[in-house]
Amino acid sequence: xxxxxxxxxxxxxxxxxxxxxxxxxxxxxxxxxxxxxxxxxxxxxxxxxxxxxxxxxxxxxxxxxxxxxxxxxxxxxxxxxx
Length: 82
Fold this sequence. Notes:
By secondary structure, this protein is mainly β. 11% of the residues lie in helices and 37% in strands. The protein contains 1 helix and 4 strands. Strand 3 and strand 4 form a beta hairpin.
């Protein structure tokens, strides 16, 4: 299964391990359609204290722990054949 085919739950379990659903909470969800930004922050408790991770939705549909790169202005050069 490719990363793009993995559900958010599968990605969370990959990073945090398999916990009971009551032990992992969504603490923030943001979906800005105009800017194509979508992320979810989840939190769980470990013996050392709380662990919070953010998962970002990428254009290919995959959930990852790093934000998608933004489209930046680009400049190109063309040869005029002179």
